[in-house]
Structures are given as C-alpha cells and as structure tokens.
Amino acid sequence: MKVQLLVSKWCPTCPQAEKIWTEAAHMVPMEFEILDVAERKGREVASRLRIRTVPAVVVDDVLKMVGAQPLADVLKLLGA
Q1: How far is the CA of 30 from the CAs of 23, 38, 43, 59, 77, in angstroms?
Q2: In the list 35, 38, 63, 72, which could disulfide-bond 42, CB 3.0-4.6 Å?
Q3: Non-local CB neighbours of 50 within 8 Å, separated by 6+ positions
Q4: How do beta strands 2-7 and 31-36 pair?
Q5: Strand pairing partners for 6?
Q6: What's the CA gap between 7 and 17, in Å, rounded?
C-alpha cells in the first residue's frame, strides 16, 4: 500500500496530520511519503487528482481523505 500525505507550509492543520500519519506508518506496513504541494512532486499529484485542499491523503493513487483525522479514523482507513 502506497500512502501519500499532501501538505503545505502555510497549512495550520498539516503538522497535526503529519504527526498522526507518521505514527500510523509505524503501526501499519505501508510505503509512506509526505509531499509538499509547493514542490514539483506534490504539485503533480495534486494536479492529477484535482486536489484543492490540504492536508489530503492519497492511497494507491486515489484520494481517500481530506483534513486532519484522529488516529483511530486513520487506522480504520488503513484496515488496521
């Protein structure tokens, strides 16, 4: 499973989402990366999936979640 968290430096809730998803990545086997939408790779993913809001979670190239979610919801999404 490949999980990408799209964030931005100006986003007030992105640090919370980063913390929760990093914790989840230690609990559930996955390929995990954090992408800043201000950088090329992050822009490409956001553009391809028409993502307009961060934080946004992409699982296997499908937008699954927008906004910062509690760890329990993140684990449920991941099937843990």
Answers
A1: 12, 24, 22, 10, 13
A2: 35
A3: none
A4: parallel
A5: 35, 56
A6: 9
Give the global pTM: 0.94
Task: Give dist(CA 12, CA 45) in Å, integer.
Answer: 21
Q: Where are the domains of the chain?
A: 2-77
Q: How far apart are CA 60 and CA 65, in angstroms?
A: 12
Tell me the per-residue pLDDT of 9-31, one tens digit each, with 9 for 90 and over.
Answer: 999 999 999 999 999 999 999 99
Question: Does the CA dihedral 79-66-51-34 come out positive or negative?
Answer: negative
Residue 80 has pLDDT above 90, yes or no: no
Interval 42-46 mean pLDDT? 97
